Amino acid sequence: MERRLEKVMRAICACALALTVAGCVETAQEVAISEPDPELNFVRVYRSVADECQLVGETAFTVDLLDDAADLVACPTGSAAMASLMAETGAPVITQTNSFSFFSIPYR
pTM of the prediction? Predict the structure, then answer.
């Protein structure tokens, strides 16, 4: 009887440990939007004339993304320009549309 109780207690402890660890795992945040691209106000290219990344102005879509201490930049999703912007600035993607990934680049 004692052995059986010991096995049951071990199983309960193992389950409790598994649930505790599973609760600590962070899931990736969903940032993609499955709707068509919203209307965007592209102000100018961001880093150079040949850059695919562009400074974005205020629209209904971007109003909550704008920050007075940072540039809102949109790059074509998956482009080399996007990869280089992320490597240079370390900025994470804050949201996405079907075609663009958006970054908030703080002023330095």
Answer: 0.66
